[in-house]
Amino acid sequence: MTYLERLALWLGRMSAWCFAAIILVMVYEVAARYGFNAPTTWAHEASILLASAGFVFGGAFCMAEGTHMRISFLVEKRPGLARLSNALSLIAGAIYLSGLCYASWRMAEKALWRFSLSGAWDPERSGSTLNSPLPSYLKVLLFVGCVIFLLLVLQRMIPRRNA
């Protein structure tokens, strides 16, 4: 197992805990809102950040683990067709993820490298009551997840030597 695969698996396992944290945040929000009539301003944005982290690293995790969904009934009986199908899916994935990496970098760059008229750093904000800079951080997170996923796909395209 390569370092990149171990990294993707670790990130996937760690980000899976984000979904447990969402449950805790939502339980707190419901108790605060309906039990004490004191809703939070941060619960919604925090749950979006946590879910995004889980989903962003999920693709790379599945690629590293080899558990992506496959429709295998067409290729089960023909190994040559399976190899062709695998090669075509890796090529299509590399093309798609290359475009997604480029687009997510452009979005992250525009969201992060913003400055006010006074020269202070002013990243893109949510516009909610909390008005946090989470959208800019999520765009960076998307870029990082796409790059890891793309590198895993490219790694799978390189034939491995048996030791």
TrEMBL record:
Q: Where are the transmembrane segments?
A: 7-28, 48-66, 87-105, 136-154
Q: What is its main location?
A: membrane
The residues the entry assigns to the signal sequence are none
Q: Report which superkingdom the organism of origin falls in.
A: Bacteria
* InterPro entries on file: DctQ (IPR055348), TRAP_DctQ (IPR007387)
Q: Which of UniProt's keywords are assigned here?
A: Cell inner membrane, Cell membrane, Membrane, Transmembrane, Transmembrane helix, Transport
Record membrane topology: Multi-pass membrane protein
What family classification does the UniProt entry report for this protein?
A: Belongs to the TRAP transporter small permease family.
Q: What does this protein do?
A: Part of the tripartite ATP-independent periplasmic (TRAP) transport system.
Name of the protein this chain belongs to: TRAP transporter small permease protein
Q: What is the lineage of its organism?
A: Bacteria, Pseudomonadati, Pseudomonadota, Alphaproteobacteria, Rhodobacterales
